[in-house]
Automatic annotation (TrEMBL):
GO terms for biological process: amino acid transport. This is Amino acid ABC transporter membrane protein 1, PAAT family (TC 3.A.1.3.-). Its main location: membrane. GO terms for molecular function: transmembrane transporter activity. Belongs to the binding-protein-dependent transport system permease family. HisMQ subfamily.
Amino acid sequence: MNAQVPDKIPFFRDPSKLSVFYQIMTLLGVVLLSYYLVSNTLANLERQSISTGFDFLGKEAAFEIGESLIDYSAADSYGRALIVGFLNTLIVSFIGITLTVLLGTVIGIARLSSNWLVAKLSAIYIEVFQDIPVLLQLFFWYAFFYEILPTPRQALAPLPGVFLCNRGLIFGVPHFHLAYIYAAIAFGAGIICVIFITRWSHKRQDESGKIFPLIRVSAVILVGAPLLAWLLGGAPAEMNVPALKGFNFKGGVTISPEFTALLLGLVLYTAAFVAEVVRAGIQSVSKGQREAAMSIGLKPAHVLNLVILPQALRVIVPPLTSQMLNLTKNSSLAVAIGYPDFVSVAGTTINQTGQAIEGVALIMIVYLIFSLSTSAYMNWYNKRIALVER
């Protein structure tokens, strides 16, 4: 008896073919919609005699920027002005993320302290700074510097050569010398050396169970190597100390009120959320882990560093990444207090050139780069600390 050949499924009833068809039609619809929007926008811009493209980046900016990590003047191009804004945003984000992780970790651990006062103060900090919008916090710190702090003539001097006033934080720095370059190189080499020692110590501990004094050795390397390079370079000690001349200080380094207010607002606000992330991550580790570690004689500090935190990090890292991204994106609020970040510089550029589409596109691209870079690094770190199943 011949086997019956199944009937061929019609196209409109074949799920696999229909799914491909729907995806093609969706893609085609997106392409057509994009073409319509772009062509319509270009036609409207041409009708209103508005130039398009990025040729304006090479034209003279003709506006000053209060703070810059590189040399800049009003005679420079819009492109260089945007680079200044990019670097300003980068430095605020980098320093802010570093301080936020450190402060949030300390407060999160303190939130679980057995000391009643420490735990309550940490809880109050978290509740207060989480419930106040970050923009209001920026306004508060900005007003603190300009309304509460004294003028340069009555500047506070908490330390010799350090002054705090409504012009910002002013402090002395060493005069340039090659010895400091050598010290910086030695510090970088020390970091690389510590990374290799850390890997070796962990491997040694896994194989033999012996604990290597990693923290003390790392501290000696990171402090001793730059110090030795500084001594070999001639041990220069000349300082560029600020001095009051007229209505302001001359010399040294000045950290502006805008930068400080932005950094304080972002760090204190985001650290409250990071503290909750750290607290939740620590509490996710079962009590049996702590009890087992204490039963073999480990000190509380070793229990936290060697047993609790390594396991908690696998829970902490994903939400911590979100908080890092939030801090970077919230840095765009700097325009509200006059700090020249990328959004502020791009806004001035748009106002002068009238090329809003290109300016907004650059803002989107820059923050996309920041976000993707942070996510890529944290995803790499998350995979590195992930548990490997056997």
